[in-house]
Amino acid sequence: MSRLRHRELLLSLKASTVEACFSVPMLNLTIPSYPFVITFAVAALGWGSTAVGLMAALPHLCNLVQPVLATWLRQRMALHPIMVLTFIFTALPWGFVSALPFLPPSTHDLTFALILGVATLANSLGGVSWSAAIGELVPPRISSRFFSRRNLAFGFWTLLTVSIASQIAERGRNSLVVYGWIFAAAGLARLAGLVFLWRMKFPDSVMKPGVEPPAWAELWVPLRDRNYLKLAAFIGLWGLLLNLGQPFYPMFLLQVVQRPVGDVGWLTALAGIGGLLTLPGWGKLCDRFGVKPVLYVCSLAWAIVGLLSWTAAGNRWWFHLVGTYLFIGGTTAGFQLCQFHLMLKLAPANRAPYVAVFLALTSSLTAIGPILGGALLRLLPDQLGSVLGQEIRDYHVLFALSMFGCLVSVHLLDLVHEAEAHPPETVWRTMRSMRAFNPVLIAQSAAQLILTPVGLVALARQSVRTLRKQARQITDVGDDLVESTTEAIRPTRRDPPEKESP
């Protein structure tokens, strides 16, 4: 029975990675605070800064109300059926975007807002149930390595998908028809990921309702955990300050730097490459030094580089943003990995209410950021002078406030306690000798991926070969896909789960 449980674990971890290879690229095309949706709203629908700010705040507003909805659902069904329902309602609304060209122009904004609302709320509920379920599935001692390699696997497909979608949108001259087909294809990809979710085996705590339905009092338990609240306070404040400026990066590139949609897509792809090249290193650092010091290093590096680069960008100087997106992509990947892992690590066995409350608390702060940023852009003068021939715009003031605030807020992380955490200085020293963080090697690898077809061909060659072999059996595509792209689950074969004592 232990071997059977071991095999089921391996197959479930592999299916989880395959599901992400379909679902995460779709989410990167449809989350309201991400660049692709923002470029659609600005370039195709003509939305301004206020509307973009509200749209970017929508995921966080949904996270704010989801604890009550999630608890209500868990009183009636198990986590697994909740995940299935949210997968469906996250995917299906995006098919209706393809109907926008056939509707009166006066209804486009309202229709798209309804699509955003339904899909984003479903994704928020699904994120809570998925986080709780995956926390029950993955053994704690391999979680850092597993999630880093899982992120590496879906990161390649996200990079490819966002790049191709941006180029298609630009060649289609940002028409509603082209965007409609892109969003419809993204919804189908999410449904394809549902196939592999069905193949996963979860513990009974995920598959079956509890003997006693979760009580509303569960939501108060995390509020008495001071250490958990300190982590939520840091993540929430960081999110507020970061989202004060980040959702408006695409608008700045389109309107001030005057770059086409395709260039915004390529810069976003560079951020994905930065994550791909550094994720294995972040996972090793977390296993060796703990999650908190790695999160500290990611946050500090992100804020310093962002402050210097975005305040210097404009219609005259913008080429340095190529390196900025590459660097920030790496720190973003590390930040997201550490945030998720530390959230689960500090939560007790009953993770669902902790995850729900964590998202609600952090989102209640983060949602303020883009709304406040949009309001500041409306209040500030468009131009505030020039320096060395470079115009100083309202965007520069906003970006400077955002990044400087993030830099100051990093010190709140000192208040969070993690038993295995080492001093951040040890992380800095180790990073200097790690291949994954060598700037010369990162730049060389990124240039190979962007400027030559060799890098992408090397990553995709085995995947295409296996796709051809398994075309007749769609349920087997994912296993070979993961094995041949990044071998994401291979380390778990060297770390089998501990056998249960009889």
Question: Could you walk me through the main structural features you see in this protein, from its secondary elements to its overall organization?
Answer:
There is one protein chain. The relative contact order is 0.15. The protein has a two-stranded antiparallel sheet. A hairpin with a 2-residue loop joins strand 1 and strand 2 (390-393). The protein is built from 21 helices and two strands. Residues 462-502 have low confidence and may be disordered. The protein has a single domain, classed as Growth Hormone, Chain: A (Up-down Bundle). Helix 5 packs antiparallel against helix 14 and helix 6 crosses helix 13. The radius of gyration is 22 Å and the shape is globular. With 502 residues, it is mainly α.
Q: What keywords describe this structure?
A:
single chain, 502 residues, mainly alpha, Growth Hormone, Chain: A, two-stranded antiparallel ribbon, 2 strands, 72% helix, globular, disordered C terminus
Examine the coordinates and then state which fold CATH places here, giving the name of the CATH topology.
Answer: Growth Hormone, Chain: A
Regions with pLDDT < 50 over 5+ consecutive residues?
Answer: 462-502
Basic shape: globular
The count of strands amounts to 2
Tell me which oligomeric state these chains represent. Answer: single chain
Please count the helical segments.
21
**What's the main sheet like?**
2 strands, antiparallel
In terms of DSSP E residues, the strand content is under 5%
**Radius of gyration over alpha carbons?**
22 Å
Note the run of SSEs as H and E: HHHHHHHHHHHHHHHEEHHHHHH
Could you give the distance between the termini? 11 Å
Output the CATH homologous superfamily. MFS general substrate transporter like domains
- Rounded mean pLDDT score: 80
The CATH architecture is Up-down Bundle
The CATH class is identified as: Mainly Alpha
